[in-house]
Amino acid sequence: MRKICVITGTRAEYGLLTPLIHAIQNDKDLKLQLIVTGAHLSPAHGLTYKEIEKEFTIDKKIDLELDSDTPVGISKSMGLALIGFGKAYAKLHPDIVVVLGDRYEILSAVSAAMIAQLPIAHINGGELTQGAIDDAMRHAITKMSHIHFVATETYKKRVMQLGEDETRIFNFGEVGLDNIKQLHLLNKEEFEQSIEFQLGKKNLLFTFHPTTLESQEKIISDFQKILDFLDTLKETHVIFTKANADNGGKVINEMLAKFVTARPHTKLFSSLGRFRYLSALLHVDAVLGNSSSGIIEAPSFKVATINIGDRQKGRVQATNVINCSVARESLTKAIERLYTQEFQNSLQECVNPYEREGSVEKTKEVLKNISLEAIIKKDFKDIL
């Protein structure tokens, strides 16, 4: 049996990986190995590994001691990850290591796999997030990987530009969106009960991650402008989810906790979990902030996204996205446009560029059948 080792470090990336993990687990010719790390093991981020254990057996937990989100603290976590993954691979002996995305713990996981000469399959390569340091990490992960699953033709071309062999680049769409519309999600009453919070006349789902190429001072200043703007909204209830474990994430979460405490029309969650998060998309007017979920998942639900700032700059976007800055005037115009009849009507025609039927099955079949003989690359494919 071919051993497929899937790695997850955050709630967002786990949500996208879940359908593929199920497909691997249900294939009698494959053996699933699951390594959980990063924010999943952090009390400050909701100990979300417990949610994973409700669905899957975790083969290895690698604690990165996320007690600090400073550059020094993150570098320490990367070092712990490198050591932990090296030991995990030596014990598990996977045939293929599967990773998704662009974060620092994934960079460490892939670095250890490269040293161990393990075939690496990378999901979501070729994308851009020009407002985050993750951009450079994603491309570095691409260069260390051997099998590439991209979400659009634009991203496929970009991976080819990085010198990767076209025969190992597969454009199947976003795996996390496959069959998403067939999920039996919570109706409004069930959702309200699950989060112990009543929805209002207007409702927003808010997630904001640090723009890691900015100084912490600017991150704080920009985020305060957003909170000040939210305080001006009338008849609007806001569901907040915490920022991730990046440089500046801790201070954002502290500011959120203080903001929510004094405002009964708001509620803060470390993590909603994938099921409640997707259910929320059925019942809110918009996803607000700078999370990739507003770009990737929201269009499938015909729900609007107000994308603030440059963190997601460069990603392929559907017509549900309204881009704005942190300036009060820009945010005001975005909210005003959200509630225009013209924009609301346009949402019904929105097509998600990341959504492709059969993505999970096609990805799983490649992992199952691709030849691993001489897969460790030694060449660079020039574009002539």
Secondary-structure topology with pairs:
Blueprint: E1 2-8, H1 11-25, E2 30-37, H2 49-53, E3 60-62, H3 71-92, E4 96-100, H4 104-115, E5 120-123, H5 134-144, E6 147-150, H6 153-161, E7 169-171, H7 188-195, E8 202-207, H8 216-230, E9 236-241, H9 249-261, E10 266-269, H10 273-280, E11 286-289, H11 293-296, E12 304-308, E13 321-324, H12 328-338, H13 341-347, H14 359-369
Parallel strand pairs: 1-2, 1-4, 2-3, 4-5, 5-6, 6-7, 8-9, 8-11, 9-10, 11-12, 12-13
Helix pairs in contact: 1-14, 3-4, 4-5, 8-9
> What is the CATH class designation of the largest domain?
Alpha Beta
Could you state the order of secondary-structure elements as H and E?
EHEHEHEHEHEHEHEHEHEHEHEEHHH
Under CATH, the topology of the largest domain is which? Rossmann fold
What portion of residues is helical? 25-40%
Average pLDDT over all residues: 93
Low-confidence sequence ranges: none
Identify the CATH architecture of the largest domain.
Answer: 3-Layer(aba) Sandwich
> Could you tell me how far the N terminus lies from the C terminus, measured between alpha carbons in angstroms?
40 Å
Q: Supply the number of structural domains.
A: 2
Structural class: alpha/beta
Count of DSSP strands: 13
Could you say which overall geometry the principal axes of the C-alpha atoms support? Answer: globular
Radius of gyration (CA) equals 20 Å
Key phrases:
13 strands, six-stranded parallel beta sheet, 16% strand, 384 residues, 39% helix, seven-stranded parallel beta sheet, single chain, Rossmann fold, 2 domains, alpha/beta
